Amino acid sequence: MAAPPTAIEQRLPSQPDAAANIVVFENVSIAFEDKPVLDGISFRLAKGETKAIFGVAGSGKSTILKLTLGLVKPDDGRIYVLGDDVTQMSEDALFELRRKIGMVFQESALFDSLSVRENVAFRLLEEGHVSEEEVEKRVREALSFVEMEEAVNKFPAELSGGMRRRVAIARAIVTQPEVLLYDSPTGGLDPVTSTTIIQLIVKQRDVYQTSSLLVTHRLQDAFIMATHYFDRKANEMRPLPPGSRGEIPMAFLILRDGKVIFDGDARELAQSKDEYIREYIS
């Protein structure tokens, strides 16, 4: 039997620097109905970095995203996003901060009654200060990025699961966010479609270098991201040369019993001697 989890040693800045660290969790704890979910976790997302978050069901992966957005408040600890302490912000201030964050929800969460164009444009129209011409331009650009221009007038019910995920990514990036949050972007998809979605995420990572937190239950997805890069000339994802690392940092965060038990890159993960981690990645 694997040993009880031990929180890894943390080396976080006492004064988070927004220029270097986009998201910082400092000793964050939260419980629901007296059931601890996160127990004093600390980690940081560096500027331009993508960090994949793993753990068994109920380990707090999606809760981390909700905390980052300020949708729920921690019982203890501090959370800094783009230099702001979201644990102390008013709802109005949080609303402004969320304008800088793109979110890809589980199962896409598109509005069934809106067309693809209207779904992607929703946040731009909600902000109210973007001209109709600019909205149309940015919607077209976002849909082109995810190769869904031809579906602009369709409705979600007319799309496959993979196509809906593409539209969800377009909706998340249309505001040109500084942070992207992905909540199980390949959940429920077949392996081939999952790889297609991961290729889009790798494209977003390498072309725009947007800092991202990605919750997933598929280790394979994150390993693909860690071992591939997006070739702009070929317009496709390609494997990195053996032993090399991509230009954009890619990290793994593993949760167990409310603790962070691993925070590092793919090479460090593969070399881990922790019995639980070895079993988890096998």
Instruction: Report the sheet-strand fraction.
Output: 25-35%
CATH class of the largest domain: Alpha Beta
Q: What structural class should be given to the helix and strand makeup? A: alpha/beta
Low-confidence runs (pLDDT<50, min 5 residues)? Answer: 1-5, 9-14
Could you give me the name of the CATH homologous superfamily of the largest domain? Answer: P-loop containing nucleotide triphosphate hydrolases
Secondary-structure element order, N to C: EEEHEEHEHHHEHEHEEEEHH
Number of domains: 2
Q: Look up the CATH topology of the largest domain.
A: Rossmann fold
Oligomer status: single chain
The name of the CATH architecture of the largest domain is: 3-Layer(aba) Sandwich
Taking the alpha carbons of the first and last residues, their distance comes to: 15 Å
What shape does the CA trace take? globular
Q: How many beta-strand elements?
A: 12
**Percent helix range:** 25-40%
| Estimated radius of gyration | 19 Å
Give the integer mean of the pLDDT values: 91
Biggest β-sheet, characterized? 6 strands, mixed
Describe this structure in words.
With 282 residues, the chain is of the alpha/beta class. The chain has 2 domains: 21-100 and 179-281, P-loop containing nucleotide triphosphate hydrolases (Rossmann fold); 110-176, no CATH class. Helices cover 34% and strands 26% of the residues. The protein is built from 9 helices and 12 strands. The protein has helices spanning 61-69, 91-98, 116-127, 132-145, 161-173, 191-208, 219-227, 266-270, 275-281, and strands at 21-32, 35-46, 50-54, 76-81, 84-85, 101-104, 179-183, 211-215, 228-231, 236-239, 250-256, 259-264. A 6-stranded mixed beta sheet has the order 6-7-8-3-11-12, sandwiched between helices. A 4-stranded antiparallel beta sheet has the order 2-1-4-5, covered by helices on one side. Helix 4 (132-145) packs across helix 5 and helix 6 crosses helix 7 (219-227). The longest helix has 18 residues, at 191-208. The chain is globular and about 50 Å long. Mean pLDDT is 91; it is low at 1-5 and 9-14.
